[in-house]
Amino acid sequence: MAQLLPPDPTALDHITAFRGLPPEVLAWLRQAGELHQYADGETVVLAGAPADKLLAVVRGGTHTQLPGDASARGFRLAPGDVGGLLPYSRLQFFPAQGVAVGETVLYELPSRHFPALEQVSPELVQRLVGIMNDRARDLVRTQERDDKLRALGKLSAGLSHELNNPAAAISRAAASLTTALQVIPNQLIELLASCPSAETVAAITALAVLPTELPPPLSALQAADREDELATWLEDHGCPDGYALAAGLLDAGLGVAALAPLAAQLPARARPAAFAWLSGHLTAARLTRDISEAAQRISTLVGDVKTYSHMDRALGPEKLAVTAGLDSTLHLFAHALREKNVHLTRAYAPNLPLITGQAASLNQVWTNLIDNALDALPATGGELMVRVEPCENCLVVGVQDNGTGISAEVLAHLFEPFYTTKPLGEGTGLGLDIARRIVQEHGGRLEVSSEPGRTEFTAWLPIS
């Protein structure tokens, strides 16, 4: 329990911001404020408590860990530092719990004395406002960095899943391809041993090419019926393992109608070897295509990460296409979109002009807006629309969801620093403030409109 200490004429001498003040100002401060002593680890301020006092460290120190802060450092006040609520600050509630580090003595000035302080010492008020501005800049830099880390942390699980799928597909296809390649030479030997004519061999090899576009997928029942039909036909033409061959032939779009002319050219003894080699060759070709497509998917994901993080480019402003950053961000959210079964609509106007900006910073904005939209979507029937269109000398980027909407009361404070509707520890209330500041640094503005069933955040960015 904090202990109220008796007045100490020398206590304020340890506060950096108070040094050099006239004696009458120091006397007023001693009279208006109080000294409190805290044990090591004792709570100095509670998270969510009204921000109603200035704190200055006479001895010891305090440590505050902001919710969502990715660093282990937190925010510290050392002897001589000033914190808590400062004059002209918009802070209404303490965003996190602050605890004493070692035996700590704090000078505490209730905020109800701030109007009088402005009259007693405009110089001290100016100093405190300077401290507040410096600290706010440092906090914003830290929170912007941590916001990026949080975004990457949220995306990493989905990205890992997205990378694992094609990697697993490559592994499975490679194992199957190894088996297929071991059998194909023997199948070829058996085919040639049956001595088909050159014309017949040419007819076989003409079918041994995967079509550019694979046939449209069939329902499970349709696929089973076609496989039964082809397997029966193959067995009727002397192939004892019709079911084993049917899948590879059907995957390439070869059914009874396509194979019947070839069967008519083949001697009966050559048909088993011919169809076995054809099925094996087409299976190997399909597996090769599967490996190529999976590898391309991994390459695309790596490219999306590079585009998202802008790690392979200069950090300065450059001409860029807004849709490229939006697409890379949406690709990284692919797993989350699938998990919630979200219907995504990209409404991009054609021939969009470029803007000048920093891709990594803007991608942070898109991440924040898309992530908030996902949180707001209903459990089923979620719809997310991302639109980009020109309007006079700007590009308009809208992120719209069909969630429950934002109340007028929340809407009025939505862009205020530290304002959040999320449970304590799940949000700092700085995400939208950072997003708006980034858009403003690009010469634009960020707005929001909301009604039940429709919320849209709109960024207006100047065209290069």
UniProtKB/TrEMBL annotation:
It is an enzyme of class 2 (transferase). It comes from the Bacteria. Its EC number is 2.7.13.3. It catalyses: ATP + protein L-histidine = ADP + protein N-phospho-L-histidine. Residues 17-135 form the Cyclic nucleotide-binding domain. InterPro entries: cNMP-bd_dom (IPR000595), cNMP-bd_dom_sf (IPR018490), HATPase_C_sf (IPR036890), HATPase_dom (IPR003594), His_kinase_dom (IPR005467), RmlC-like_jellyroll (IPR014710), Sig_transdc_His_kin-like_C (IPR004358). CDD domains: CAP_ED. One of its GO terms (molecular function) is protein histidine kinase activity. Residues 291-464 form the Histidine kinase domain. This is histidine kinase.
